[in-house]
Amino acid sequence: MQSMRRRETLSGKLIRTISDRIAAGQYQVGDRLPSEQEMIEEFGVSRTVVREAIANLKAGGSVSTVQGVGAFVMQQEKKTAFQIEETANLTVAQEMIGVLELRVALETEAVALAAQRRTDANLATMKAALEDMRYVASSGEYTAEAGEKAAQADIAFHRAIAEATGNSHFLRLFNYLGEYMVSRSRMETFKFGGGPVREYLERTIAEHERIYQAIEVQDTDTARAAVRLHLAGSRDRLQRRIAKYATG
Fold this sequence. Notes:
By secondary structure, this protein is mainly alpha-helical. It is built from nine helices and two strands; from the N terminus they run αααββαααααα. Strands 1-2 form a two-stranded antiparallel sheet. α4 packs antiparallel against α9 (220-247).
C-alpha cells in the first residue's frame, strides 16, 4: 500500500534541517541547540520525533547531550558511526522488523549481564517504568499521547536493563536504538490494530514483568529467554498485523 512505502520521516526531516544548519554555521561548535519545547513549537512535531532526531545526531557524533541542560553541537562534519539511514528501498515496517531482530541479539546478552550485576537502584528504575505502563493500561485513554507515554515507559525499562549491565557501550547503543526505533514501533503497532489496545498493553506489561522478575532473582537463563520471547514476539505480532493491514 502506498501509505506503507518508505518516505522521509518527520525525524528524518528534522535531522536534515539541524544538520544543514550546523553545516551552514547557524549552529556553531559548542552552541546549545534549541530546547525540545522550542523545536516542537518551531517544527510542529511531537516530543518523540525531537528525541529520535537528537538520538540520531548524537550517535553520528554531531551533537552531545547533558542531562537537564540540553544538546550541544560537537562538530561541523558528521563522523562515520553506526546509524539507521533513511533507506529508499525499505518500508517503515521492514525497518522496524529489522531493528527488532537486531535488538534480540543485543538485549539477550545485555539482560544476562544485567541479571548478574543489577543494583537496587536499577531494579527501582525498572519497577517505576512498569508502573508507568500499568497506568496507561488502566487509564482507558488510548490516544496517540497515551501511546507515546507507553512507548517512553518501554524505552525507560529497556534503558534500565542496558544501564544495569555496567557496560557503557550497551547503554550508548541502546540509547540510539531506543529513541530512534522503539517508540516508533510501538506507535505504528497501535495504528495497525489487530486487537484491543488494552489487551496489547496488558500482554506487553506481562512480558516486561517476567523479565523484571528474572533480573530481580538474578536468573540469567530465564532473563535471556524472557527477553527473546518478548522481542521476537513483538516482531512476529508486528508482521502479522502489517500483513492484515495490507490485505484488509
